[in-house]
Amino acid sequence: MSASVTTYDVPPLADRGSRWWRSHLGGRLMREVLVVAGLYSLYKLGRTLSRNEVGAAFAHAQDVLSFERFFGIANERSLQLLVLDHRWLVMLLNRYYATVHFPLSIGFLVFTYVRHPGVYPRIRWLFGLTTASALVIHVLYPLAPPRLLPGYVDTITHYGPRIYSNAAVTSQANQFAAMPSLHFAWAALVAYGIIRCGPQRWRRLAVAHPLMTLVAIVLTANHFWLDAIVGGLLAVGAGLVHKWVVAVTSGPSIRAAFGGGATPDPLG
Fold this sequence. Notes:
This protein has 14 helices and no strands. The protein is an all-alpha fold.
């Protein structure tokens, strides 16, 4: 009695490698990493273009304060005074400002790419358009943050973490790129994306991120209210521009690149 042998078709190694390369965790992922890294390098380069505009930056700060006084919202200094006696709160806000913004934004992009590949192109373009428009304003309208003005306390310098004393940071940072606040713009985009396509249990917490970011950037004297308002408007404007591009674009490859393909999009 002969035993029957079950055989399985095992794809050749080359075929498996080819399928992996075509998947969203293969060649596409490598291309995305290169694109994001290239855009970030250009962004860092662009931020250095106006960091020597000292006179203009401080003059613009006075203009912003005058604008806020006209609308009755120039209360950043008085609000900061309310928290300076609470060291634990100042330290919490400092840490949130210095350590949450970039890792959480990158983590959100990675999560969206892995779990919602059909949505990711749209999220990427929203971040890209918002950041590009912010960079233009950074160059054209250098602005000194409140912490560099008399009467405000630079809580990062006084309480830490002292990120601005780090030679690697100061060599590339533009301390006159306060307008608009990308901290707030990115936080708003993260919250929007999580609310629309994230896990249900995260959606109620999503709005806490931009709110906490707003409190942190103002009370640490890193931004004026107007910086956050403009950052939020840029994020909204990026969404409108993206919708228009997808609506007027007929080519399927271009539509897919902008997140307007056939894949159901919970952000739509």
